[in-house]
Amino acid sequence: MLRVAVPNKGSLAEEASRMLRDAGYRQRSDNRDLSLTDDANGVQFFYLRPKDIATYVSEGQLHLGITGHDLTEESSASVNEVLELGFGQSQFRYAAPQAHGWTVQDLAGKRIATSFPRLVRANLAQQRIAAKDVIRLDGAVEVSIELEVADAIADVVSTGRTLAQHGLATIGDPILSSQAVIVDRNAKFDQQPDPGDIMKSKYRFVERLRGVVFARQYVMLDYDCPEQVQDEAVRVTPGVQAPTVAPLSLDGWVAVRAMVRRSRVNDVMDELADLGCTGIVTASLQSCRAVLPGHGGVSSMPGATPPPAEAPSTSDPTASQLGVAGG
Ligand SMILES: Nc1ncnc2c1ncn2[C@@H]1O[C@H](COP(=O)(O)OP(=O)(O)OP(=O)(O)O)[C@@H](O)[C@H]1O
Ligand SMILES: O=P(O)(O)OC[C@H]1O[C@H](OP(=O)(O)OP(=O)(O)O)[C@H](O)[C@@H]1O
Ligand SMILES: [Mg+2]
Fold first, then answer.
1. pTM of the full structure
2. 77 with 187: CB under 8 angstroms?
3. Are 66 and 98 in a shared domain?
4. Is the pLDDT assigned to residue 10 strictly greater than 90?
5. 198 vs 322, more confident
6. Which domain covers residue 274, as residue numbers?
7. How would residue 163 be classed by pLDDT, with cut points 50, 70 and 90?
């Protein structure tokens, strides 16, 4: 059975479980449960601290895990990130009291508190900055300056509210941008390769989640279009592959269906209305399959789980058969 690690607490936990539910997997109903078996889908979920997940996966005890890119980078675990999940976005940045007006060079000779010491040491070395000390703290890092444990910090910034509340300002460029990812182990020479059924389950799991990530970035748009502006309308909604154009039981009109990027949908609807299209409606998508390569802003990172021989190829353009088209 496929064994998958899911964050049990923190910023990633709730959204990870929601995404798994959208992909058709059972999830725990009690936050204290540390594992759950989804027999119907042949997956056992383990709810672990996100910081530990890359370690379990790299050692081979668990087949796949959901964690943060920054946590993976901080751990020394040897894993491949196979899919970006589009939630848990954050930046990892240096910060210091706003009043100082420091630049990155001012970090030389300073004490820097962080929960990610490995990332900070590597970044300081790369920028040839000799800090006085890198102090490892588990959380609430922003308070460490007031408490005189550190002169500056490196911490996760999402909205920037916590920094502002403590009179801190960011310094320099982000050290790292992060989001939730699926990690797979980077098989070591002393490890057995995964058996075929596990390879197949891994592939299926990643493709299901890829479908949810993709579906969240698009909406399905339907509209009625006067035949004389059909070509212009199709240019406005070219779809992922091509839009579906069907006859309407009204002379001189066609019905068009196309997937459109969620971020652009209102502009697209305005343009269609200006062309004389009508009955323009949108529908949210929960999931989809047959994502065409290079679409959807979902990067298949290096080392992505290869499909086993019997699994269908993602490049199979079944989108048009499904009437799935986008833009
Ligand atoms: N506002 C945020 N605060 C912290 N982590 C965030 C935030 N937004 C996204 N993340 C991501 O969540 C992951 C950290 O999760 P983790 O559960 O370890 O810490 P946490 O959310 O701070 O919870 P905890 O309260 O247990 O420290 C990282 O990948 C981080 O980039
Ligand atoms: O930019 P913001 O939206 O304010 O979010 C960033 C803050 O959130 C996290 O802390 P968390 O609440 O997880 O507490 P912790 O520091 O104890 O981990 C993170 O460590 C920052 O402190
Ligand atoms: Mg935290």
1. 0.87
2. no
3. no
4. yes
5. 198
6. 218-327
7. very high
Cα 46 to chain centroid distance, Å, stands at 20
The helix (run of H) or strand (run of E) holding residue 217 is helix 196-217
More confident residue, 300 or 46: 46
Determine if ligand 1 sits within 6 Å of the CB of residue 178: yes
Confidence class of residue 292 from pLDDT cuts 50, 70 and 90?
low
Q: Is 262 exposed, middle or buried (0-12, 13-18, 19+ CB in 10 A)?
A: middle
- Mutation test residue for ligand 1: of 47, 69, 87, 156, the one with most atoms within 8 Å of CB: 156
pLDDT one-digit tens code per residue, 129-143: 999 999 999 999 999
Q: Domain containing 168 — which CATH number?
A: 3.40.190.10
Q: Are residues 12 and 97 in the same domain?
A: no
Ligand nearest to the CA of 144: 2
Q: Residue 46: inside a domain, yes or no?
A: yes
Is 146 inside any structural domain? yes
Together in a domain, 113 and 244: no
User: Do 146 and 95 fall within a single domain?
Assistant: yes
Query: Which ligand has its closest atom nearest to the C-alpha of 12?
Result: 1
Query: Ligand 1 pocket test: which of 6, 12, 116, 176 has the largest number of ligand atoms within 8 Å of its C-beta?
Result: 12
Q: Is pLDDT of 276 > 90?
A: yes
Q: How far is it, in rounded angstroms, from Cα 231 to Cα 172?
A: 48
Residues 6+ apart with CB under 8 A from 158: 11, 89, 90, 91
187 and 79 in one domain?
A: yes
CA 158 – ligand 3 centroid, Å:
11
Among 24-38, 189-203, 246-260, the minimum mean pLDDT is found in 189-203
Residues 228 and 327 both lie in one domain: yes
Residues paired with residue 251 on neighbouring β-strands, in sequence order: none
Q: How far from chain centre, in Å, is Cα 126?
A: 27
